[in-house]
Design a protein that fits this description.
By secondary structure, this protein is of the alpha/beta class. The protein has 13 helices and seven strands.
C-alpha cells in the first residue's frame, strides 16, 4: 500500500467501514466545521479506491465536519486497495492511533481486530503499530471486563489505568464491587493496585504470612495504626490513600466519624 495520490474527491462517494473510533462530540464537530468553513480542510483524510467510490481509512471526524460545513469536495490521500483485510486494518489503526487520539477501548478493539485478521501475536502487533508489547497486552486486557465496567471506562468514570488493574481481578463479583468504588470516587487507582496485589498473592503464601502492625505517631499526640499481612511502605500508602479518599467522601455527604467507621467495617466484611 505504498502507492498513493492526494486528490480532491467527492465527499458523498466516501463510505466508512467499521472504525475504531466510535465517539464524536457534537460540540467538537461544530467547532471543527466552523474552522473548515474559513480555512478549508488543512490535512487530507485517507481513503482507498473502491470501484467508483472510496472507503475511508482515517479522518472520519474531518469528513463529518466537512458535511456540516457544506463542502462537496475534500482533499484525500487516495491509496490503492489493500491486498488483505489485515493490511487495511493495520493501516487504519496506525493512522488513527497517530492522528485521532483513540479512546482506550477503541484502541483495544482495533488491536484485537488486527490480531484476529492477521493471526499475529500481541508482541508482533506491538512492533507493527509502534507500541510496547506490555502496552498492547494491557490494552487488550480491557476487553476482558464486563460490559458495565467497559461503559464506565468509556464514560470516563474509570480510568484506563484502573481498568488494567480491574482486569487482574479474577472474581467477577469482587471486580464489580471494586469498579463501583472507583467510579464512585471512594477508591483511588493506587489504592486499587495495592488491593489487587494483595488479592493475587498465592493462597498458601497469604495463610503462612503473619499480620504486621504499624503505628505512626503524628503531631498533636495522634496515632494512626494499620495492620495487614506483611505490610510494606507501598501497601501502607495504599491503605492511607484509600482511607483519605473515603473520609473526604463521607465529609462531603455530611457523615460523622462514627458513620464513616461503620461504613468501612461493612465494606470490609463484604470484600473479606
Amino acid at each position: 500500500m505504498s502507492d498513493y495520490r492526494i486528490e480532491q474527491i467527492s465527499r458523498k462517494k466516501i463510505t466508512w467501514p467499521v472504525q475504531e473510533r466510535k465517539h464524536f462530540g457534537g460540540a467538537e464537530l461544530a467547532e471543527l466545521a466552523a474552522t473548515i468553513r474559513v480555512h478549508g480542510i488543512l490535512e487530507p483524510i485517507g481513503v482507498i479506491r473502491d470501484g467508483d467510490g472510496y472507503q475511508g481509512l482515517w479522518g472520519q471526524r474531518r469528513w463529518m465536519a466537512a458535511e456540516l460545513a457544506g463542502l462537496e469536495l475534500i482533499p484525500a490521500v487516495v491509496r490503492d486497495k489493500p491486498r488483505t483485510e489485515a493490511e487495511g486494518i493495520e493501516t487504519r489503526l496506525i493512522e488513527n492511533l497517530q492522528r485521532e487520539a483513540l479512546r482506550p477501548l477503541e484502541q483495544s478493539a482495533g488491536l484485537d481486530q488486527l490480531m484476529k485478521a492477521s493471526g499475529l501475536t500481541a508482541s508482533d502487533v506491538a512492533k507493527r503499530v509502534g507500541m510496547k508489547p506490555a502496552a498492547v497486552t494491557k490494552s487488550l486486557s480491557l476487553l476482558q471486563l464486563s460490559e458495565p465496567i467497559r461503559q464506565q471506562i468509556d464514560a470516563g468514570l474509570i480510568s484506563a489505568g484502573a481498568g488494567y488493574e480491574l482486569a487482574r481481578v479474577e472474581d467477577p463479583r469482587l471486580r464489580s464491587e471494586l469498579a463501583a468504588q472507583i467510579a464512585g470516587g471512594t477508591l483511588t487507582r493506587d489504592a486499587l493496585a495495592g488491593r489487587v496485589k494483595t488479592i493475587r498473592r498465592p493462597v498458601n503464601q497469604v495463610q503462612e504470612s503473619k499480620k504486621s502492625r504499624v503505628t505512626a505517631k503524628l503531631r498533636g499526640g495522634r496515632l494512626v495504626t494499620v495492620s495487614g499481612p506483611e505490610l510494606t511502605l507501598e501497601t501502607f500508602i495504599a491503605a492511607m490513600e484509600e482511607l483519605l479518599t473515603r473520609a473526604r467522601t463521607s465529609r462531603a455527604k455530611g457523615h460523622s466519624l462514627a458513620t464513616l467507621v461503620t461504613i468501612l467495617a461493612d465494606d470490609a466484611k463484604r470484600t473479606a
